[in-house]
Amino acid sequence: MKRKLRFGMIGGGRGAFIGSVHRIAAIMDGQAELVAGAFSSDPQRSADSGSDFYLDPLRVYPSYKDMAAAEANRPKDERLDFVVIVTPNHQHFGPAKLFLESGFNVVCDKPVTFDLKQARTLQKVVERTGKVFALTHNYTGNVMVKQARDLVKRRKLGDIRKVLVEYPQGWLSSAIEASGQKQADWRTDPKRSGAAGCMGDLGSHAENLARYVTGLEITELCADLTAFVPGRTLDDDGNVLLRFDNGAKGVLHASQISAGDENALSLRVYGSKASLEWHQEHPNELIVKYPDKPREVWRRGNDYVTVPGQFTRVPFGHPEGYLEAFANIYQEVFRAVRAEVSGRRVPRNPDFPTITDGVAGMVFIDAVVKSASRGSRWIKVPQS
Amino acid sequence: MKRKLRFGMIGGGRGAFIGSVHRIAAIMDGQAELVAGAFSSDPQRSADSGSDFYLDPLRVYPSYKDMAAAEANRPKDERLDFVVIVTPNHQHFGPAKLFLESGFNVVCDKPVTFDLKQARTLQKVVERTGKVFALTHNYTGNVMVKQARDLVKRRKLGDIRKVLVEYPQGWLSSAIEASGQKQADWRTDPKRSGAAGCMGDLGSHAENLARYVTGLEITELCADLTAFVPGRTLDDDGNVLLRFDNGAKGVLHASQISAGDENALSLRVYGSKASLEWHQEHPNELIVKYPDKPREVWRRGNDYVTVPGQFTRVPFGHPEGYLEAFANIYQEVFRAVRAEVSGRRVPRNPDFPTITDGVAGMVFIDAVVKSASRGSRWIKVPQS
Amino acid sequence: MKRKLRFGMIGGGRGAFIGSVHRIAAIMDGQAELVAGAFSSDPQRSADSGSDFYLDPLRVYPSYKDMAAAEANRPKDERLDFVVIVTPNHQHFGPAKLFLESGFNVVCDKPVTFDLKQARTLQKVVERTGKVFALTHNYTGNVMVKQARDLVKRRKLGDIRKVLVEYPQGWLSSAIEASGQKQADWRTDPKRSGAAGCMGDLGSHAENLARYVTGLEITELCADLTAFVPGRTLDDDGNVLLRFDNGAKGVLHASQISAGDENALSLRVYGSKASLEWHQEHPNELIVKYPDKPREVWRRGNDYVTVPGQFTRVPFGHPEGYLEAFANIYQEVFRAVRAEVSGRRVPRNPDFPTITDGVAGMVFIDAVVKSASRGSRWIKVPQS
Amino acid sequence: MKRKLRFGMIGGGRGAFIGSVHRIAAIMDGQAELVAGAFSSDPQRSADSGSDFYLDPLRVYPSYKDMAAAEANRPKDERLDFVVIVTPNHQHFGPAKLFLESGFNVVCDKPVTFDLKQARTLQKVVERTGKVFALTHNYTGNVMVKQARDLVKRRKLGDIRKVLVEYPQGWLSSAIEASGQKQADWRTDPKRSGAAGCMGDLGSHAENLARYVTGLEITELCADLTAFVPGRTLDDDGNVLLRFDNGAKGVLHASQISAGDENALSLRVYGSKASLEWHQEHPNELIVKYPDKPREVWRRGNDYVTVPGQFTRVPFGHPEGYLEAFANIYQEVFRAVRAEVSGRRVPRNPDFPTITDGVAGMVFIDAVVKSASRGSRWIKVPQS
After folding, report:
1. Which domain of life is it from (chains A, B, C, D) (predicted)?
2. I want to staple C49 with a disulfide (CB 3.0 to 4.6 A). Which of B16, B151, C39, D276 is the partner?
């Protein structure tokens, strides 16, 4: 298929955060181009944003419904190969369902939906339509996260015993939502964010990262959630004890009130033979620790790294970061989309997060909120 | 008082670990000298150890009881100013009580006793005798830990919201106790270690560190303890959710099976205005983080450090470590002992851990074990 | 100007390294698109590469001369706004001169030319044509490098006294050029690389970084260059003493045989009041050190960072890397190119490296080689 | 020999810095005791200091000459086993020569003498008297420095190609000597410090560290020394190019005006097969880098560390620091002194710095100063 993929975008207009991340990640490898969008629920803002991106005004829409209707009728050589949804959480389900059912592949920001019920419904839509659906739990796009998973898979750590995953941020240490900061505004609003605040935004990333690397499922958890900042109703901090299906134990904690912390997602996995740790703020390194030999620092780009070279853009020592990891998710999505569009078989276990991961994330959020609301009791986590 | 202090030692003979740490810490500042001891329950080993230390054989004893009896009768100018107890946990209470009641000041390794009941009894003995009793929770001897406490006290962090304290070690990742490793042997034995393994050895340090720096008390906890290594009866790993008396939340986890981790005690304290973190393996630094200005690295030995200069032996950039922190505990003990011996008033709130801290540690261990044994339920922690 | 900029590329076809870096950096912000190229001196490889990039075959050329001739005749609405030159060093001058004289703006990889004479000639061409000419000394695109420069400019460091800049790599520790590794092959060949190997490739980056941040010029230097790997004729390692025009002293060292080092460019600047350091492998941080207060870690993306926000794509804690810094160079180039293309005034002191920096780099390389070839004597560096 | 060693001290009274370091290092292992001293050229201060150390006033002297005379006449069972000299540089030679010739073993602070001539004379005295003479280039006492040397010796790095050693401090960034700071006062005074300031104090440590680890000798150097702080006559900063006897090249730089740096001695050694780096401020780690496998972090106290266990006092993860390294020098000295005192053969190549190292250090200082004073010309360094 000798052409770039064409995509449209729902949300992500002027003033948005994650929209520009998706755009950069999607286009940086020269494999895709943005050609359409409903960038805002405010039609003027949508139009202005389309102009910022040098789009044909005819393909910039005042609403996602208009866009779905119009784009579905485009001729084949103009047709969108996929649609990217980057709206607040409560506006994922509607466009995702509509575009899937209109015959489009979909990339959606996380968490997948507003609540678990929507997620399960959407899962059926994905299965029924057979379209590609990808969820941007972007941190698993990091090369050294993939390397970590590979080491676990090849049993280099032995049996996994303990998993520590944490995600402290500090940007909501004070009530900045009161001053109208847009990102803070919707993320602290139960009507738009869902039943969880910090746990929905950050906890679900942490859960996804732990599951991706270890391949283990959480079977029970005990969560203590708190809204520390006065006036806030959703949790801005949470600590969770974890038990996994192989008998491993763990701790997951996440926070938006860890003043001075930025985006300090990290994962530590301890096995019977060795251990590893990865820190998102230093993503090019993976630390591997042994009981009986020097600890090792594995660094992206070296020949000893067993992750496919396609995920690496620049040589060792030339730091890659957040955007490249995000772009790695897209790169895998492109392979699936090109297959789908060409009528070839879509990969069965693609290396990007799918609706299954989306549902697992919502199950986790649901369980955490339930545990907390019942006096932080232990909760069994339903297995899919 | 123009002389060195004289001390004797219970335990700490050939093959011991913590005994030599106490000796170095006690003598390095030229303020005290070892003159007597019952270094082992094996009389020959005790004698050989005394010879290693160049002691007068007449003051090297086959048992602590013999030692107490004989030393109590020494003339004043030979009399021991204090006794150091460095035996396994189940042998703290006996000698501590005996020496206190025989009129000696006592330094005791942690945890203070085998169980909480003994601790409460010993507390009464300490109060009744009026002697100095110090517990070597040595990590609070670190200058930058003291600096952390000072920042909290001066309200630089605002209100404390979250406390993360962890203590991962990996040396018991396999069943080395089976091969007769002496340290592993008694620490994994419920008859000598007490009701907790990892939580007694490491958890109590973590609890003490958190309490020292924050000044907060744990009011409730929920603990998930595990013995991962087959054949082990005491926990070698534990994860604990914490609630504090001011409404702060926290996590404490400790481990002896975190393969490849060494002695990775660390503390993070998050406040409404700023946060701090300290890592035992890099003890000369304290990281202070703010929501709105560059994070700071406070380094021992600088003029801006507000901790009294007496706790610093070498200038900035000349790393101090574990032994110097331990020696700082002794330095404070010496002030109290010199006062006691001279008939002056003993400091009321000395900057070393006391029997109060010892009881608090046993309360913590007791609560953790109770929580775990009741299905990891939340437990209210009794306040003294 | 409501459209993306159009660019073409000389070199950078299949198997190249820096070509893909330029492509990603140029397109990631959605401001430019690749539409033409002479990607290789091998016509088939050029054609295949054009196909990889989904280009119109009519705009993929067998040579840069063909390309210049054909593209100069394109109608205005198809015309290239700039050309990117990413060939080996000995092939910079030819296409740069030709495209400038054919009326195109030019972005050229570093070092600017094969030798100093070419550089001075090219400088005249740039001045005469009035076109935009940018040199991708990409490291100055890093936000925290710009922050460093700003701190120096605002006199936060006082008078600069000492500059340490180093660039150790290890990838040429053995004679991999012998096995046909393409990058190694031309970089170790005096006919393609120029009079210097390591010093041309890495030393010139180091020189540029130091000059950018400090604003100082090197007036004298003493260089000791070595070819350590047997059979190599160009230096693969060099150590240089520096003297600056304000009386500051410094050291610059660079290496391709520092086994195990990756791309460890770093800069330290010491002033009378404070100092700073920046490490390319951890580019999101800038360390600022004071004689009398805690050292600070400035981190990209925070409000206290005074660098214009345009250079930052993702929030604090979301690491940016090599490609984003490179893209920052392009972003500034785009502003100049848009001005030039629109007939507006081109910025006088743009924040990207210009032909002046290119000449300075060649003067440095020339002086280093002269010093080394004369027994590592001190050499006065001509000031422009 | 079943007793502690007895030692006396020249210098190191109240207000001194390095004196207390020597005292702690000498006594911490319970192998030696301070029994005599001439602690200051001010008799009252000497007496007061003796009292601080609980010494017998009869063995506290107003001058080192008095002390030598009196102590030489002590009976055998009171006789000093060694004397420690911790005076400013210009007062090393006199007492060292006198005590050696009076039959005492001597430990002397570095640099060994005021100038090279004195050093050569002292070397003859040492040889003639056959006494133990040790120089406290303390950094080679670090376990991980010894490990580095061992790796080099066992050819794990292959052929050494490049050596980078640096020692930046910042404490003399301003003219604190003007305000009477005692340490600054004599170190910036050519009459007491010698021909070099920074290079004598720090450069000689750096040279010693490089030589100890690599086993290489410097054959040529080119030095650029500067006194940056107005009014200062001795260098407070210096940059030196190095050439070694095996063809390796290197850079040594040291500074007292690197504002905000503390005691940042570090060493990097690059070989044809691997490389290593060690940082004094994180002394428990040694980083080993390879071209083709993950870099390793070797950590003190592990079983894979090949350095004799005697140099390690506490287990891995319990940081050791400056004082322990210093004490390791003493520990080796004690072995030699016990042999000498017992009439046994003194070790031929002891693992502590000897007069040979002292002379090598003075040769280095002499060469550096000569190079600098001759316009920073290359100088051949005489080989002993």
Report:
1. Bacteria
2. C39
